[in-house]
Structure to design on (439 residues):
């Protein structure tokens, strides 16, 4: 059995966290491949190493000396090294990097990738594992996508007869030899690629929470973790606003049928959340809502026209107007002679009056209305389809709390029930759902 483990920035923040990672790995000998992030915050007032490296690069672009910020980076890693008693010459590498930075010979992607690089160097030395640089196997194409076949083969060759390896996340190599990074949070992708390359039995993603929570803890006090979630449910939760995993993480492991386990470095005995394609048996058959999430600041454009249901192309004309303005539509609730389109206000606001004019000209609706300051809330759960009356219960609970529903939408797969409320009712709506159907 093989488990690929990825440890996030909070797990790499200081020497104490390194020791926790070591203990987690020692507790299970199948955890042989380790992917690490750059050092994260030690406390609320601290800085993430990646943020400091971005700041260093910005300094150089404006001709400002970045020595002070760079020393904050180096001192963090040297403190970790010395506290753990690791014998590793980092000073020489830091000096060489600083010289190249001063000469303008370092790209932004290369500079910010050094957070993961030095984390992995230290962790490999601490564990006595082999260090495998991401540039030696994560291969990008010219268009910025990962060449999975080439990357997978390269990693398999590198770990042959390797008892344990530590890999920096977040970056790889372009065909021209330059380092390229993923978007922020991309170490999750590196871990997923490693798991897929090695056909791991499980991909463990270790962070600072005990799995995915059923609701935002900033809105709901102490929300319960989700013990099991399918890939489809996770996609719905992420799309509707939940901060779960980097969006590119799921695809490599889902293609190989590899389950993902979200775990807590600070509470390693907690089972966390298991993510799979499907579950033969539910751990909690009474729970039919998997998670509750949402986002604020949407705009709804609604139009009605007599006989719309008998006219061909009305919706196409509306969507074509939005496409010309490069606006993506999130939801399209509709009735017999009316249709609405729901979009982020930030995207539509600069073009609103032009859009309304074009819809008026091309569709000639009887009514054309705009509603803004709308929040979209989603209740997600694969078992909702098998529970009659769920929508009615949800809307009744919201009605009893005097929350007005502005929009309703439900997908054909019945994985979610989505509704719109005023922005001011956003948090209250999530609390009502959680307290009514989870507690």
């Amino acid at each position: 059995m093989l488990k690929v483990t990825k440890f996030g920035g909070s797990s790499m923040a200081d020497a104490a966290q390194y020791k926790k990672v070591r203990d987690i790995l020692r507790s299970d000998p199948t955890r042989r491949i380790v992917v690490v992030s750059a050092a994260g915050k030690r406390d609320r007032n601290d800085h993430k190493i990646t943020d400091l490296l971005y700041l260093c690069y910005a300094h150089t672009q404006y001709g400002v000396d970045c020595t002070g910020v760079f020393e904050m980076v180096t001192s963090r890693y040297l403190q970790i090294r010395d506290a753990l008693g690791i014998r590793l010459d980092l000073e020489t590498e830091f000096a060489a990097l600083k010289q190249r930075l001063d000469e303008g010979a370092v790209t932004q992607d290369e500079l910010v990738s050094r957070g993961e690089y030095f984390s992995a160097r230290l962790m490999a030395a601490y564990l006595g594992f082999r260090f495998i640089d991401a540039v030696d196997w994560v291969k990008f194409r010219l268009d910025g996508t990962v060449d999975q076949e080439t990357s997978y083969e390269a990693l398999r060759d590198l770990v042959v007869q390797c008892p344990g390896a530590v890999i920096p996340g977040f970056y790889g190599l372009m065909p021209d030899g330059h380092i390229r990074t993923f978007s922020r949070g991309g170490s999750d992708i590196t871990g997923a690629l490693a798991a897929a390359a090695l056909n791991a039995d499980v991909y463990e993603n270790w962070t600072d929470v005990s799995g995915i929570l059923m609701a935002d803890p900033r809105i709901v006090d102490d929300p319960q973790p989700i013990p099991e979630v399918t890939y489809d449910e996770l996609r719905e939760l992420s799309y509707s606003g939940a901060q779960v995993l980097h969006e590119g993480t799921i695809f490599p492991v889902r293609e190989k049928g590899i389950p993902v386990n979200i775990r807590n470095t600070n509470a390693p005995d907690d089972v966390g959340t298991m993510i799979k394609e499907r579950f033969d048996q539910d751990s909690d058959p009474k729970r039919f809502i998997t998670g509750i999430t949402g986002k604020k600041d949407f705009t709804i454009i609604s139009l009605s026209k007599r006989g719309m249901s008998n006219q061909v192309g009305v919706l196409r004309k509306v969507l074509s107007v939005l496409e010309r303005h490069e606006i993506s539509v999130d939801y399209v609730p509709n009735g017999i002679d009316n249709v609405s389109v729901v979009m982020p206000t930030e995207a539509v606001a600069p073009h609103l009056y032009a859009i309304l004019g074009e819809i008026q000209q091309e569709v000639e609706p009887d009514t054309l209305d705009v509603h803004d300051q709308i929040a979209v809330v989603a209740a997600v759960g694969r078992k909702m389809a098998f529970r009659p009356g769920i929508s009615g219960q949800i809307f009744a609970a919201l009605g009893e709390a005097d929350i007005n529903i502005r929009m309703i939408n439900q997908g054909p797969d019945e994985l979610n029930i989505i509704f719109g409320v005023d922005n001011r009712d956003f948090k209250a709506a999530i609390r009502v759902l959680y307290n009514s159907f989870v507690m």
